[in-house]
């Protein structure tokens, strides 16, 4: 067993790829906030592959976090010189590669002084983020929630912020005062128009405390939209054992599927790596790619994740092997989601759905239904409900999507159909659970405007939801699937 570090890279098993570049000569260019598994399997990997070609040596990544629990990840990565073992899981076999594009991690402190100083460094030309879909402080109308306590705090205490966005504003203020250029702010989260949303959050927050700074950011900064895609399970005991089987002691390994996609709007204010040389796509049609991926893949996860966990199915691959759930997925996608998707150069909507079905069915990826079902209060409004609205506007069916929402409501009661407890699986779990239990008697209580907006009172959708939830509570989820598939 070889403990992962710079000094032990030559000792790793021969089949494991490793950096061929001199990591000691790398210079920072990107600061990334949110060093979870997805970033290390995606953006970090693209940059690493450029470095393997002798390119982008001045674009190395400095990691960062804004929550106390991020310190644990910082400690694990520091102990292995910021290296990560990526394990690609494919039915045909697995392979491993050590990624070395990250060279540091900012200390995590209350008030974020080290983070602000790091982003104010002129060497940093891109600040990127993966802070989850629900992390952008959006109100029900998708604007900045200026009433949120964190946003109010940062507006009133701009030099000692709580949030990543407040720290970005503080750093941009320092850069402006020093006569330095702004950095590009790049969201890597699953949000339609993620760059526009990041722009709204950063500029909107700046405007609350310093309107002139907000104007400067508007004029000098950049917020490119992007679409990111790779299925990356959480790391648990099985993944830690898997890396040990390869002969490596890595306390923060990452497993991932054998598919990646990154489509980026080429709108950077301070330069960028040539990610297109290693498979990324620069395009002015990011929104079409985003729409396809979010509606088909991310919404597809919500179509199957809640009902599968409700029925005690543990992984997404096992879920796709269930005939009823697989049929639900196929029919909802084909009848209620694909009609509202535009083709992109690589895929027609139907071809993309076939790709997603194969990826979801990959038995080598132990992606759990619980992970997929997490944070439904952000994911259902963001991923599923846009297709409901499009269907109502176009006169296409929404019955299956109403069933998906009813299954989520049943899931949030907190018990599976076998009586076992569903542990809290949403930042707003207690609120959702209370509402879900009340909705067992009156389904319309679930359809609150904060989540559903005008759909709460839109008859074709609301009536179908009401009927489905009553049926689920009376006869069970399988009965509802059977009824829908027989229509």
From TrEMBL:
Mannitol dehydrogenase C-terminal domain mapped to chain residues: 286-464
Alphabetically ordered keywords of this record: Oxidoreductase
GO molecular function: oxidoreductase activity, acting on the CH-OH group of donors, NAD or NADP as acceptor
Span of domain Mannitol dehydrogenase N-terminal: 29-276
The UniProt record lists the keyword Zinc-finger: no
Alphabetical list of PANTHER family matching this protein: MANNITOL DEHYDROGENASE 2-RELATED (PTHR43362:SF1), MANNITOL DEHYDROGENASE DSF1-RELATED (PTHR43362)
Name used for this protein in its record: Mannitol dehydrogenase family protein
Gene source species: Paracoccus litorisediminis
């Amino acid at each position: 067993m070889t403990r992962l570090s710079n000094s032990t890279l030559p000792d790793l098993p021969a089949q494991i790829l490793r950096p061929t570049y001199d990591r000691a000569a790398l210079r920072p260019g990107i600061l990334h906030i949110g060093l979870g598994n997805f970033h290390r399997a995606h953006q970090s990997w693209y940059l690493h592959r450029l470095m393997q070609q002798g390119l982008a040596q001045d674009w190395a990544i400095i990691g960062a976090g804004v929550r106390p629990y991020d310190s644990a990840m910082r400690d694990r990565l520091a102990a292995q010189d910021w290296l990560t073992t990526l394990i690609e899981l494919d039915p045909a076999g697995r392979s491993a590669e050590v990624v070395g594009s990250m060279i540091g991690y900012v200390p995590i402190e209350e008030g974020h002084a080290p983070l602000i100083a790091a982003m104010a460094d002129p060497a940093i030309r891109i600040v990127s983020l993966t802070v989850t879909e629900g992390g952008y402080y959006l109100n029900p109308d998708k604007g900045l929630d200026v009433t949120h306590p964190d946003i109010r705090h940062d507006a009133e205490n701009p030099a000692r912020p709580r949030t990543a966005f407040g720290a970005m504003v503080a750093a941009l203020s320092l850069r402006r005062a020093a006569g330095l250029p702004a950095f590009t702010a790049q969201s890597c989260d699953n949000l339609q128009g993620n760059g526009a949303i990041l722009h709204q959050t950063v500029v909107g927050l700046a405007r609350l405390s310093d309107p002139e700074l907000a104007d400067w950011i508007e004029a000098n900064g950049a917020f490119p939209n992007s679409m990111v895609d790779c299925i990356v399970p959480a790391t648990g005991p099985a993944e830690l054992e898997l890396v040990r089987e390869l002969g490596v002691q890595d306390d923060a390994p990452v497993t991932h599927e054998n598919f990646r996609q990154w489509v980026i709007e080429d709108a950077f204010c301070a330069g960028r790596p040539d990610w297109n040389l290693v498979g990324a796509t620069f395009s002015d049609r990011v929104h079409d790619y985003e729409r396809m991926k979010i509606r088909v893949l991310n919404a597809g996860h919500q179509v199957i994740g809640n009902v599968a966990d409700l029925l005690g199915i543990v992984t997404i691959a096992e879920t796709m092997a269930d005939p009823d759930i697989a049929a639900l997925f196929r029919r909802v996608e084909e009848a209620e989601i694909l009609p509202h998707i535009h083709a992109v150069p690589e895929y027609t909507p139907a071809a993309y759905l076939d790709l997603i079905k194969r990826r979801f069915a990959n038995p080598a990826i132990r992606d759990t239904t619980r992970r997929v079902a997490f944070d439904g209060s952000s994911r259902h409004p963001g991923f599923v409900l846009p297709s409901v609205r499009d269907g109502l506007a176009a006169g296409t069916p929404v019955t299956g999507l109403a069933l998906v929402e009813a299954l989520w409501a049943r899931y949030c009661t907190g018990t599976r159909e076998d009586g076992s407890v569903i542990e809290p699986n949403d930042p707003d779990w207690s609120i959702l659970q209370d509402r879900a239990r009340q909705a067992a008697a009156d389904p319309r209580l679930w359809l609150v405007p904060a989540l559903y907006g005008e759909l709460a009172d839109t008859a074709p959708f609301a009536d179908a939801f009401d009927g489905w939830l009553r049926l689920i509570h009376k006869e069970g989820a399988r009965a509802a699937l059977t009824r829908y598939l027989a229509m």
